[in-house]
Amino acid sequence: MTVRTRIAPSPTGDPHVGTAYIALFNYCFARQHGGQFLLRIEDTDQARSTAESEQAILDSLRWLGLDWDEGPDNGGDFGPYRQSERAELYARYVDELLEKGHAFKCYRTSEELDALRTARQEAGVHTAIKPSDLILPAEEVALRESQGQPYVVRMMVPEEAGPCPVTDMLRGEVTLDWSQVDAQILLKSDGMPTYHLANVVDDHLMGITHVIRGEEWINSAPKHILLYQYLGWDTPTFCHLPLLRNPDKSKLSKRKNPTSILYYKRMGYLPEALLNYLGRMGWSMPDESEKFSLQVMQENFDIQRVSLGGPIFDLEKLNWLNGLWIREDFDAKALADRLQGWALNRENLEAVLPHVQQRMNTLSDFMPLVGFMLAGNLPLTQANFEALKLDQETQLKVLQFSLWQLETLGVWDKEAIFPILKTLADGMGIKMKDFVAPIFVAVSGTTASFSVTDAMGLLGSDMTRARLRHSIDVLGGVGKKVAKRFDKEYRTLLSTH
């Protein structure tokens, strides 16, 4: 048997370090067994998927040194490698499941589903929603079908409680209960598959032998095993890796930590060091060495050395490791080359010059004007914000509300950022000039910089959000009670504007 693994990210935002972490372990497992590593793009969410996000995923993984044997850009014998281009395949297997009675068309409206959930909650029922809860009488189905009403296709699952064993490479046999397995949607009303159907079909057709993914998918494994059985296919070997955690043990998220690979690239982390650090997430070398290359990790890789304790993504530890790589693996010439490629290159210069050229009298004016573009978190204190017109609490609201809104932004550029800030300023009754002043300071360290929305666009989403979070902390932070009050005001503002 030839080992075949895959990574299947969704192109719906910045490439996530969690994707790189899972990709690294899939890559090393395949390489260690002389197998193949595939990249598949999960773009069935047509509303949120973008070509720009897909390209960022490809570029980021390659920047880290993780290449793939088959994928959307280099092809292969099992393509296409974008799920949006495989719709006919999914439809074929949905028809098979319907014909065999393993799935059903569900015409329930969103209002009916809400009412059903409310009734179950009020009755104290906490088991999953089953087919018997959803299937309408035959005459009602026929009526809604004749009216052309939309429907989804859901899978049949056992109605009764009972054990469902799942074999995992790291955990052995994990026993889940069918009472918690719902009648999962397989095909959405727009004709696109859900994750559950698409991944089972694709993993089978692409010959994936080992599904190595995050532990958040353990509870979905019974549905996937059932689909393999329904379709008469062999089930691949499952391995669920522990999730990356914030220092407070919560799941790694952009609300508490920068999560975009682009952020770490923009911050000046070395790809070798970041990959080294991700390799240490729940895994260790046989000799317990902390600094190692991708090649060395691959040669020594044993997935049984993965620890099930949630690995902590600690920026201080990453900084220490990155420093080791800088000091131990580069002479002055090599480091100069890295610096030039990182930020001091012509592409970056040409991107920023149009924003500062009119402010320059001498070439030496350039660095003071753009120095903040090359920095990480700025050395700010409350004194940097004291000259602004808004009081401190209002500044905190501006920064926090802006951060919350920017976290929802799908496309990151000046044209998308400005309307968000303008809507918030209008909703809060603050002049735009005064509203953006604390954002100016947070992003550039001064209100005398070039356009803050231009700067935010150039800095990127995660770097901008990191600086906003840092400035919120500088201004005293937002505790739980204040956050609750801010959240209520924020939601009210959004609902009225």
TrEMBL record:
One of its GO terms (biological process) is glutamyl-tRNA aminoacylation. GO terms for molecular function: ATP binding; glutamate-tRNA ligase activity; tRNA binding; zinc ion binding. It is found in: Cytoplasm. One of its GO terms (cellular component) is cytosol. It catalyses: tRNA(Glu) + L-glutamate + ATP = L-glutamyl-tRNA(Glu) + AMP + diphosphate. A motif ('KMSKS' region) lies at residues 251-255. Residues 335-472 form the Aminoacyl-tRNA synthetase class I anticodon-binding domain. It comes from the Bacteria. PROSITE patterns: AA_TRNA_LIGASE_I. Its EC number is 6.1.1.17. ATP binds at K254. Belongs to the class-I aminoacyl-tRNA synthetase family. Glutamate--tRNA ligase type 1 subfamily. Catalyzes the attachment of glutamate to tRNA(Glu) in a two-step reaction: glutamate is first activated by ATP to form Glu-AMP and then transferred to the acceptor end of tRNA(Glu). This is Glutamate--tRNA ligase. It comes from Marinagarivorans cellulosilyticus.
